[in-house]
Amino acid sequence: MEKEVIGRILESTIHNARCEFSLGAQAGDPVTVKVGDTEFKARIDQLETTPLLGLQGWIIFLERPPRPPRAMATVHRGVVDMGGILFFGHDYRGNEVRFNVNPLFNHLLLVGMTQRGKTHGMLVLLEELTETGVPCIVFDTQGEFINLPEARKNSIVVEDINIMDLIAHLQMKRTIVINMLGLTNSVKASKFAALLTQFTVEKERDYAQAGNSDQLLKIPPTLIFVDEAEIYAPKVGVRSKRYGASAEAMTELAMRGSKLGMGLVASVQRVNSLAIDVRDNCNSVAAFRVIGRSNRMALACMAFFNTATLDRLKGLMKGECLVLGPLAGGSQTVKVRDIETRRAKNVNFEEMLGIVDGEATEFKPSIVLAEDGSIVDRFTSKVLATKTSRILDEDKRMFEATEGDGVLIRTEQLPDEILEEIRLQGKISELQGSGLSFETHISDEEQSILKKLREGDDRKIG
Ligand SMILES: Nc1ncnc2c1ncn2[C@@H]1O[C@H](COP(=O)(O)OP(=O)(O)O)[C@@H](O)[C@H]1O
Ligand SMILES: [Mg+2]
Fold first, then answer.
1. Does ligand 1 have an atom closer than 6 angstroms to the CB of 119?
2. N or C end of the chain: which has fewer CB within 10 A?
3. Does the CB atom of residue 117 touch ligand 1 within 6 A?
């Protein structure tokens, strides 16, 4: 079968190659390149469009060829073959994305602003790992993992556990969720420190008694999940003494854990608030959407992120992430799959404050698509965005359905007087850098109009 040609090599080493691509190519696409008679798997890593040269970029070899392919060799579209067993989600073409377990023992960091899907992503991994018989210890910072046993039977929830019981459960390939909801951060941190330190000691003993024989190990390889890891291992400088022990325990895990069959899966909102040795020992990263210049700049402290990868983060929707490193065999954009575990109900502050039937819910700003393609406010007929006005790529993503009928509108495009009006009518939910967000409520019909806007973005996924 003739494979589709999607590019040509311009210059190459045995690690990566600079290529020109035809228009359908996307960062993250699997490709193959022939060297001699053998095909080698690679993945498109970065792409840039230049007016003079068209679409160019880099591929990274996933299988190392014996010598670089010659210049002008063709690059063919490959198949997604992660070969893994952990079903994590789909790529933008709808192909399943599966991960191997091994890279998790060299640690995974999930990073992204709140409400982007980090905890959800960790739950997906836990559902898959429990199916596969890989035991995990989950430090459940906010009580968000406590429903896992409803969905997966070889898992349990505890509030306290001693080290011997913990090990006994792990030996039965059970995942243990340690629910810490309701504790203060410093109590969470000292619980974490105590348990992880004891576990590390037991692991070291186990490796010592087993000598060189893996068969003699009594404690199975274990993955340790830590949601909101910056609580336990804040960066030196912002860390108070109380967090010294937990930070040290997590640093030990990140630096030496893989030798002892201990892997870390941690989430953080900002990579630069995490202890540097933890951050830098995570070989794979799952990055969710990040807005705001300062948040994006913060990511640049990790070698994973350059201008091209940071740009790719702008286009992500809730529940989508860019996975980088050995877990993804290079880089892979994923729409994370649904979970079977029940999530805790979303908190409704209006309900809690007793203003459900008050004015707050009366307000219904409306946005419609005018015939000429402009977006206008239905009530005031004011034009919010014209078809001809330049909408930045990022702004195309500003319309985002949230649960229920809510919608987030993020824009830097609105003229001052309209801004003021929305400020009066609506609720500003977020102020970030120069970008402003507004929370409004709109109908299904309006949502579909907004969706149309999104479809203009060719980096759309799924
Ligand atoms: N891939 C996804 N599919 C469906 N819903 C998702 C997905 N990712 C996140 N969500 C929903 O979005 C909300 C925020 O996700 P969460 O994982 O709690 O974010 P974070 O941990 O980054 O703050 C939750 O209500 C969750 O159910
Ligand atoms: Mg979370």
1. yes
2. N
3. yes
How far is it, in rounded angstroms, from Cα 387 to Cα 51?
A: 23
Tokens representing 22 are: 């035809």
What is the enclosing helix (H) or strand (E) of 362? helix 359-362
Note the pLDDT tens digit of each residue in 296-353. 888 988 988 888 788 778 778 889 999 999 999 878 889 999 999 998 766 667 677 7
pTM of the model: 0.68
Q: Ligand 1 pocket, 118 CB below 6 A?
A: yes
Select, from the ranges 43-52, 217-226, 360-369, 402-411, the one with the highest average predicted confidence (pLDDT): 217-226
Distance 115 CA to ligand 1 centre (A): 6
Residue ranges of domains in the chain, CATH in brackets: 5-79 (2.40.10), 87-92+97-336 (3.40.50.300), 346-385 (no CATH), 389-461 (no CATH)
Kindly state the helix (H) or strand (E) to which residue 57 belongs, with its residue range: strand 54-61
pLDDT at 429: 35
Distance CA(271)–CA(315), nearest Å, equals 19
